[in-house]
Amino acid sequence: MNNKPRILIVGANGQLGQELVQSFTGSTEIIAVGRDTVDLTRPDQVRDMIQKTAPDVILNAAAYTAVDRAESEREVAMAINAHAPGIMAEEAQRINALLVHYSTDYVFDGSKAGPWLETDKPDPLNAYGLSKLAGEQAIQQAGGKHLILRTSWVYGPYGNNFFLTMLHLGSERESLKIVDDQVGAPTSSIELAIATQKLVSGVLSHEFGDASRWAGLYHMTCAGAVTWRGFAEAIFTRTRSLRDGRAPVVHPIPTSEYPTPARRPHNSVLSNEKLQATFGVTLAPWETALDEVIHRLTLPE
Fold first, then answer.
1. How many of the other CB atoms lie within 10 Å of CB of 125?
2. Considering 64, 102, 128, 155, which one is annotated as catalytic?
3. Domains recognised in the chain with CATH numbers
4. Residue-wise pLDDT tens digits, 2-60
């Protein structure tokens, strides 16, 4: 008889989804679902996916993350980031499953001087942030066993992200202009997956007690903070060996010199104190996490 918990990973082909599959392999029965299997803009497909798989845990790593394109595709962003998670929460409550959902620092307007707390009032600057906030609210309204994990500046060895873009541009250009007045915590998909595995394992083993003690909203980012320019320089410094010792010159610029369709918050730093206090889980400093991603990228196939 198979007593392993059944984990449904939605968005399994994405940068976080791939890491979640790795982190949960061996200890659980994994059902990996990608966009080629289920269309999250179709509510009937979302419900059918959960009803057919009957999971113990749903990890929703799927999201519409094209921040600028969301300004002109608001309905699609809302369908994937808000309506689909709401349906997942309803179905999870119906079968008493745990839903883990990832949200974003972009629910805030960036005006606060210090790190953002879970109790701070959200005020998104863009359509992407609005859709993610609506997803949080839909899950909270459904109730049940859920963990909403707000994170920031996610990157990793797979997919499309700032880290991989910098590696590409750094090999082609001698200098780059990078925004230096937006501050946040780069958070690797590796660290997110490891921390998620710890949370889920603790919940399933009743380590944290009844759901009334832990269900809710948490911030989950790597420790520390840096600007995009600082993050880019750290990437180039640590990957010189991949470019024969060369590194492009990084010129800091203000956000005003790099206009985009979607506005970005200036301060995206999230406080992780509630996560640590409730579960005893902390993520590595962003510099340590960056080293691990680079190490993973340079390992022989």
1. 18
2. 128
3. 6-161+186-223+269-283 (3.40.50.720)
4. 578 999 999 999 999 999 999 998 888 999 998 889 999 999 999 999 999 999 999 99
Of 191, 122, 125, nearest to 154 by C-alpha is 191
Question: Which contiguous run of DSSP H or E holds residue 227?
Answer: strand 226-227
pLDDT 10s digits, 182-233: 999 999 999 999 999 999 999 999 999 899 899 999 999 999 999 999 999 9
How far is residue 98's CA from residue 96's CA, in Å, rounded to a whole number? Answer: 7
Q: Is 102 a catalytic residue?
A: no
Q: How many helices and strands in the chain, by DSSP H and E?
A: 11, 12
Residue 256 makes CB contacts below 8 A (sequence gap 6+) with none
Alpha helices in the chain (DSSP H): 15-24, 43-53, 74-78, 84-95, 127-142, 162-172, 189-204, 211-214, 228-238, 273-279, 286-298
